[in-house]
Amino acid sequence: MTGGVQDKSLESPVLDADGHFHAVDQSIDLSGYGWEDWFTLVVFWLLAGDVFYQFFTRYVLQDSAAWTEEIARYLLIVITFVGSSMAVRRNTHVHVEFLYRYLPAPVGRFLSTFVDLIRVAFFGYASWLSIDLVPRMNNLKMTVVDFPMSYVYGFVAFGFVMMTFRAMQVAIRHWRQGYSVLERPEEALA
Amino acid sequence: MNSVLLGGFLAVMLSGVPIAIAMCIASLLYIWISGTIPPLTVVHRMVGGIDSFPLLAVPFFILAGNLMNSSGITNRIFNFALALVGWLKGGLGHVNVVASVIFSGMSGTAVADAGGLGTIEIKAMQDHGYPTGFSVGVTAASSTLGPIVPPSLPLVIYGVQANTSIGKLFAGGIIPGVVMALFMMGMVSYYAHTRGYGRDLAFSWPRMSRAFFELGVVAITATVLFFLWKDESLSGWWRFGAPLVAVMIADRVFKFEAFMALLTPVILIGGMASGLFTPTEAAVAAVAWALFLGFAWYHTLNWRMLVKVSMETIETTAIVLFIVASASIFAWVLTTTQVTDQIAHIVLSISDNPLVFLLLANLFLLFIGCFMETIAAITILVPVLVPIALKLGIDPVHFGLVMVLNLMIGLLTPPLGMVLFIMQKIAKISFEETVKAVLPWLWPLLGTLALITYVPQLVLWLPGILYPK
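YS: structure for the whole thing
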């Protein structure tokens, strides 16, 4: 869940005689993100901007803008569902793998394939449910802002579709390489 | 029916399906079998479960912690703690605890603490010849301070689910955090004494007095800010502008090691305690301060790092809130099927004495904590346990701290101890060795748990002062 930027090269002693410490930054690799992650990044900083703006209007202009709170809540929903696709792609959704240490390899292989299929099936079904929900939300308006709630649910549906797609990619990769992160947790991403 | 729900959830989760999805699948099974509820409810409830303003604090607390980790502020905190207590016997063990207390004042998760600061701490302790087991034990234990000392992600989730003031919960965590830290430092001293660990840094008056001087300036700044922020009649300049200029001048004049970084917990906790900020605003203020330090003051951040840190924040936020969303449909099903009522009925039939209930709740939570992820456990168990606690006259703030501390202990216990996995990765030792190393360090945590369970005033005294009714 964390790591990456903080990963220092830890070959040399980190603590000198004065008690100060030295660590060298690794170069930053920004490749390897999915295109939907860049979309979420934009939404994330829109949310930050929105909440900063609310802050600013409340303390500096002494008059807080009413729409900021509602928009912020919806942006957080979008970030959760679309951002979740990143966690599906990287297999970082919290899961339990300890059973696999006690299972014989063929059983583990069978069970982990089953898990990959369940993930795809669930996300697929949830995509279908949320796409079905979008038109039903057309008549429901947001409280302060004059937009229909179907906008929010549209992004939820988009998130589930992306999760389904990424789960399929992961399942195919696991199938081709002959093991999944459940069987070899040491190969999981930091 | 109920066994389908709980059994299905356990079976799916143990097979390795992500916990969030396991909760959704169990709920769907129930909905299909019952046939009276449209399956659309699942998506609708999931969205409803995270549609809340206080939850906005989640991404910003995560972002603040990540920014601190990547802008070199963690290193400054470590250096500062070293000057403060590095000369004690078993020095780096004490430094480890003190640095974690400070870092906990900026970050809300044990995982960020273990993964960020923990990497530095274990490496430094190994360089100085400490046995890996000791280093891993103290680092793992001190990382659980993260969610006890405010800010705290689990307490935000608890506050949202239990409809309890997050500000009060945060204030309630301060004293238990200090108690935990003291117990752990006592344990370090005990090991240092029995195993003959030396100092890691020669004792030097100038260095130590400088560190204490820095700490004193932080304390003065905190006090002045508290009164300035409490006084709403003052203009914006006196409440924000003038203090900012003053701390910038002070930092330049005295060339402090970590003064500006130490102001982060001051801004966060002071801002909430003086009633200036809601928890969400405090989180945003911490992010603004971290960006100011990283880009303008220490010049350690750049745009590429910001993108990377934002991506990590999005990932963690999505993981946490996806669990909250899924747990809210699962909790709803548990309530609809009256599983929660049945549990309440069983518990109350054993005893309606609050002290006995707290004991049972502790044992139950310790057990659950071994198998369940923290955020999911809170979201599912709050609707089950908090109504019973309220019925027995237990303060929800008190119960929240007891619950979170129990689940933090669960992070250190097999088979599903998140912190154990991180430690194992950092120290490159086997899972069994990690478990053995961490086991004795459960004592300070269990001691604190017993103390705060049966002396509620340790939790409730500070919120009572800061938020008088």
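YS: worth flagging: Chain B touches chain A through 86 residues (CB under 8 Å).
IM: good catch. Also The CA atoms of residues 5 and 254 of chain B lie 62 Å apart.
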